Amino acid sequence: MDGAWALYESWVRMLHDDVDYALVYAFGKSSNVNIRRMLTLQQDPYLVAPLWPDTVALAGLQARAALDAGTVSAEQMADVVARSRHNAKSNPFAQLSGDYTTSDLLDEPMFVDPLRKHDCAPLTNGASVVILAKGDAARRVCDRPAWLRGIDHRIEAHQLGERDLTRSVSTAIAAQKVGVANGPIDVAEIHAPFSHQEVIVADALGIEDPTSINPSGGALAANPLMTAGLVRMGEVARRIWAGEADRGVAHATSGAALQQNLVCVLEGE
Questions:
Q1: Is this prediction's pTM over 0.85?
Q2: For the chain, which end, N or C, has fewer CB atoms within 10 Å of the first or last residue's CB respectively?
Q3: Number of structural domains, the chain?
Q4: What is the tens place of the pLDDT at every residue in 68-93?
């Protein structure tokens, strides 16, 4: 989420009306460390971190809770992966792509039960840059600007036992604040490092057909640490520039089991 947060800070700074352009840059090199172990240090330092539950294990706990509650099904998780890999075939920056059937994916062995390896985002190095421009400045540099109409960031309780892991309340609140439901959504780029999380976030955003979800392939196709959330914003903007969409929503997350969530709405003219 760090790149997405940098964009948020830049947007707030531009509201002061004395800056016309901003450059937002983020990069991540997760190959330098054991990322699953390192991210454990995000947890409560007294009760959780000393147990060293890694990111996949915590995601597995969330997935199991969602499956048991009936808010997510194994078939939905496999459908998410199949769509992600198929969409990623047209993304030159994707790390994983291809055509898979839901049944084939469900036949794969468990990795961290109830997660299979394909339910988890790959480890990816990467960087991204976004240029923000305001008003007439944007029109000078782009034939069809993608206007950022609203952005909101929400944080839920740090302690996993203090919140319902089968839902994303913070995403729903952020979506309401930025007016996601105020018009049709043509494209949604959801930052979901695990397949079940896409289902949870899409529900919190109120996304349904015919919205195109993660046409880039999303985080399951490539998930560069620190910048994957910013990539989601860029992917929505790129489709608005191209005239493929008139209105879109981008989502970024950080922390275990969707603890922090940022939502923004972009529109074309």
A1: yes
A2: C
A3: 1
A4: 999 999 999 999 999 999 999 999 99
